[in-house]
Amino acid sequence: MKSDLPKLPTLIVDTRERIPFDYEGDEDFEAIVHTKLDAGDYSIKGIEHLIVIERKMNADELFNNFTQNKERIYAEFERLRGHKIKIMMIEQSCEDIMNPHNYYVNKKGLNKRAASMPVAVVASNLNTLMVEYGVQVIFAGSKARSMTKNILLAAYKAAKQGKL
Length: 164
Description:
37% of the residues lie in helices and 18% in strands. By secondary structure, the protein is of the alpha/beta class. The strands form two sheets. Strands 2-1-3 form a three-stranded mixed β-sheet, covered by helices on one side.
């Protein structure tokens, strides 16, 4: 299907990614291009219509996305409905995300009714993204950078072999 793809992939990093993973000089990529993606933070040139990875740094970013920016995050995944691979790469463990003490909103005492409310909001919205939008959620912790790279390279290889 895509045997016309070059030997090495070109990594696409969305320009809105404030502190991107550093892949500069990585021999597995032909080049790294910083350009606007319609949705997500990372993809591969030539197959950006098939795979995208959305990166989330921590529990607070997720909570903020699912409260203050809920319409934006859902609109982003709505635009990705046609992609075969949609991943939310989270730079914390599932245990960290499910710990109410890891949310800034609780540390400041802003949520006095129920300390577990941020956890419930995040868990519920992650479930919705997985079930209704087909998003694969990965709690990668400190391995998020290497997992992002390896998933993108595996997708590129599959696309070159016509399997994607």
